[in-house]
Amino acid sequence: MTPNISRRTILGATGATSLGLLAGCVGPDLGLPSRSKKEKIDAYLSETDNYGGTIQDATGNDSVKIGVGVQGNGRHFAFGPPAVRVSSGTTVTWVLAEGKGHDVVHLEDEFESGPLRKSEPEFEYTFTSSGLYLYHCGLHDRFDMKGAIVVE
Asked: Which pTM does this prediction carry?
C-alpha cells in the first residue's frame, strides 16, 4: 500500500527544509558569535558551574588574562572567565590563581601549557586564526574544568 502524500505536504516540507538551511547561513548578529558557536559553547560548558551562558567580550584588546584554578566546580577547578570572545591577534594569558597544579589543553592539540605551578604560573598563546577554541584542564577534566575562546 502506497501512502497518500499531498502536494501541500511536499511543498510544506520543502519550504521548512529550505528555511532551516537558510537560517544556518545567517552570520553573527550584533557582534555576537554565530548561533552555532554559542550552542557549541553552551553544550561544552553545560556542566561547568561558573558558566552562566555569557561570553565575555574582550574584542579590541591586545591581551586578555584568564584565571586558572578559580573557584568553581566544588573547589578551585574552573577557568575565569570560562568563555571569552577576542579579536584575531589577541594574546591570551592563563594565570594560575589557586591550586598546586593545573594545565591548559586545547581539544584539537593546537596549544598545551604543561603544568602550571607557582614557579611557572603563566601560559600565553596568541590567536591568529578566527574560530572556536575549546580547552580544558587535562589534570581536572573529571571536574568539568573547561573553557572556550571565540576568535573573530
From this structure: 0.76
